[in-house]
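I had to read the description of the data format several times before I understood it. For illustration, here is how one protein appears when written out as sequence plus structure tokens:
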Amino acid sequence: MKNLFFVTVFLISNATVQAQAVWNNTSFVHRNNQQIFDGQNNAILLDGVNIGSWLLWEGLMWSGGTLSEKDITAKMQSVVGPAAVQAFRDSVYKNYITRADIRKISEQCFNVVRIPFNHTILEDDSNPYVYKSSGWVILDSVLNWCEDYNVYAVLDLHSAPGGQSTLFTADPDSVNLWQSPANKDRTIQLWKAIANRYKDRGIIAAYDLLNEPNNWWWPDIVSLYDAIIDTLRTVDNNHMIMLEGNNYAQDFSMFTSLPDTNICFQFHYYTLFGTPNMNDYLTLSNNLNAPIWCGEWGEDNLSGLENKLVLLTDPEYKVRGNAFWTWKTVPNSFSFPHYHYAINHPDWNNVMLWATYGSPIVDAAQMQSGIDNFIINMKIQNCEMDTGVAELLDLCSSTGIRYCVELDSLRVYPNPFTSTINTISNEENRSYELFSSLGEFIWSGKQIGMLDFSSLSSGVYYLKIYYGKSLCTKKLIKN
């Protein structure tokens, strides 16, 4: 998040609030023990969103099923041909995320975007080691927008050559990354090219080397990480590097030491296939004296999202921010809440149903109609904001979930609570204010542990903690 100066400004004047990444091109976001610091050596949190399904396509984000980018491409080409699909690709790159999106992300007081991209935007599989100017233009543009609106960027290689897992999100080939020395070398050299181009771009908070790797032979992941880092550091000693764990960014047991001095570990928090253990990530951070960051979370109902965010923002776990998945989607009947929804035009819906299930059959005219409407509807000015998600992730108002990294030692418990609220901290020089979820004032004082709040209605409350010039907010749930 922002340094304390900017936190204070946000809370005083939220009519003009905007993200305030503090950056320049001579000093960089970096690790400082278990914290993340900006280039001016202020402890920060990186709180923002993913701009998913823009530079790597996922069927689930476009109202389909578990379709990879290759699946979507092949299905479309079989109906409208390669030229029409290339035109569609160009339109997606041009219109799905634009300057207007980054401006709105900034206006929502987020200070970081994670940018998932497919290696194919820079390098065709048929022409390895030749990097495309069209891909550089795309990345250059979004970085320029981030600079204009003071939003950090995390560059996320979401699909390495061959694919780092067999899951559709990695857009895998029949021979994946781990089975091919050539694909490994291409990944190493691709990161060297990226780092060489962007070594002096301070708006980049980190390089995220591999999204959600999965390999039964974990030493192979460690070996590839080491090789990427060694090669990348020959051209760029400036940027922080993010490393994701095995088993889709959940298992970090393979790390027993830091492969570089400027490392942040990135986990993903989903509960579709089991609940991750936050204490495991805290142990990782404590043992290796390195920061941890949640690069993806979401895919749940609103109540589940609230529960996740309570954990992710609890200072006890020392998580240095998070990026919500995702900024915009095209919904279908089983979609979870996301930040923005594009209208799912009937022709586009039928295209994705056909691509996923084989019916209803669509002809070229229907598919082209679906494509045309998709391009129009996905523009941010035509999308509808999910108010529940927006309120949950609100960082602009005084009731937004925020805390100051200087108060990591502070813990408010129990949470959820029924009657009393206690703090693990020295309460000297601290004062408190309690508000409802609507911002209604309830109580203020310097001692909170002896008070009885059992008469309060069940729901969400916000405890504002003042310490000197610092102000932090803790979200609480009353049972």
Summary: The first helix runs from residue 4 to 12.
